[in-house]
Amino acid sequence: MPPAAVVIFASMAYVITQPCIGTKDASCVEVCPVDCIHSDDASEMYYIDPDECIDCGACVDPCPVDAIYPEDEVPAEWSHFIKINADYFKN
Ligand code: SF4
């Protein structure tokens, strides 16, 4: 496989969006095989670490508010959540 294809695959991740705010159901956390979904008491939602997510999609169906999307299918009005998820892990 060409190196460029590897880079593209590695950059993919799932993203948690607006409906998680105020919900924080955490069903996604329980099913994630690589434990890359995190939050804390001061945060109003959960976040997916884009560097750790293996793009498996296991977290999508358990979410009761349909908050999780593949990065390239995030609804336009929630596209800023791609950065919000990534930024959580930069501190
Ligand atoms: Fe975890 Fe898979 Fe969801 Fe990524 S897509 S956050 S690896 S369950």
How would you sum up this structure in a few lines?
Helices cover 23% and strands 11% of the residues. Strand 2 and strand 3 form a beta hairpin.
What small ligands are held by the chains? iron/sulfur cluster
Secondary-structure content class? alpha+beta
Integer-rounded radius of gyration:
13 Å
- Runs in which pLDDT lies below 50 for 5 or more consecutive residues are none
Average the pLDDT over all residues and give the rounded result.
92
Number of strands: 4
Order of helix and strand elements from N to C terminus: HEHEEEH
The helix fraction, in percent, is 10-25%
Q: Termini distance?
A: 34 Å
Gross morphology is globular
> Oligomeric state of the chains?
single chain
Question: Numbering strands along the chain, what is their spatial order in the largest sheet?
Answer: 1-4
Number of domains: 1
Largest sheet: 2 strands, antiparallel
Q: How many H/I helical runs?
A: 3
Percent of residues in beta strands:
5-15%
CATH architecture assignment? 2-Layer Sandwich
Please report the first level of CATH classification, the CATH class: Alpha Beta
Report the CATH topology name. Alpha-Beta Plaits
